[in-house]
């Protein structure tokens, strides 16, 4: 089990989410809660707040990107083999609808071969409170094995 996953399980979702924001302070702008973290899956809840809205009173595009990167990165971190490293290499996004509520980012890496090095494309979908998909990201993660 990865050290990150072990820490998540030992301190709990709320404390771990705060620690993640201390390690990478920019994530704190969306006040995320990492609600699920397991190899091949991560889920991040982002509460709707005025501070992350745009001129249309919906969640700002970059706040959605921030949630996607956090979910995709955390899922990658706990999915790669021990001693491996990763870095995001690129991200393609689609804005599908205005997000006017809390949002929920789901990174699914269950079909990715994490045992080999190279570029891995991680899909992250973001849903509003009604369950409508409002955003999709495809994040290329470059994985280097130890």
From TrEMBL:
This is Phenylacetic acid degradation protein. InterPro entries: DUF4442, HotDog_dom_sf. SUPFAM superfamilies: Thioesterase/thiol ester dehydrase-isomerase. It comes from Pseudomonas lutea. Pfam families: DUF4442.
